[in-house]
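Tokenise the fold.
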Amino acid sequence: MMFLAPFEAIDQGLVELKPVKDGANNSVASFKYGAKQYFLKNYYPGKAGDKSRFDREIHFYEFLHEVGSKQVPKLLKKDHLRDRALFEFISGSKLMGQVKWPEIQQCLDFFLEINCAKNKGIKLADAADTSRSPQQFVDNIEHRLKRFESAELNAELKNFTVKLRDKFNLLKSRIKLSAKILGDNNLCLSPSDFGFHNAIEKDGEFYFFDFEYAGWDDPVKFICDFFCQPQNPVDEKYLSRFTEGVSSAFPSYTEMKNYVEILMPFCRIKWCCIILNSFLQEEKERRKFAGKAGFDHFNGQLNKAKDYYKKHLE
């Protein structure tokens, strides 16, 4: 019998796909074929066949392989027609317990490795939700709030989003935001949605994945997102040290530390919105595609958002 390529074997039903529960936006599975284990990712197609997340991730992986990064799984095959990609399977485990500096250092090293070679990524797209100034950063968050304000929500969720809006308005009233556009020399290549929730540990080394939102961005946003991510949270006691490490790659970005301090609470509001994305119609369809659309999921997300707000914004 002829040995088929993995995609062909999948299409002919010759392999057993084992769903991976981690994916919230896409349908992901692992499978064994021949002597090898693979990881399959089927991307949510989006509106009118939008392939921006598929393209962004594939191009970012190709860039990472070009610069020789060893901290990511290998992209083995891409299928642009059917929005799917095949990766090597990393047999490891998710980080359990409290995040400490040695683990954070690996994240910082990965970021610095990327940005030491950022000139090779000149053709990469902007990161999703990219910002070029503090004002744009905050405007993007206001756009998220408006999506909820124009959606049909139950009373409990509506009351909570009003609370988010009130907090947002209060924060905004206390500061004057700069609209100065960040120079290209201070833009970073951001892996985006980056953290230990998208990492596998094997033999003490972390392998990072999920780059659908990656691209050119403000390093301040990268820092804030890294510390605001609610899964495998990183303690803010490491914020100053991490910011120093990031700023070492951008010596002329003198406002970085100040901007991080100003924008961090806004970013916390943003992550409340992200936790609640499941309630928006387009996001509901994406969760359904990923196999996460039950009542328990939605109810759990609202509780998570409330807990997150109480911990970081009250």
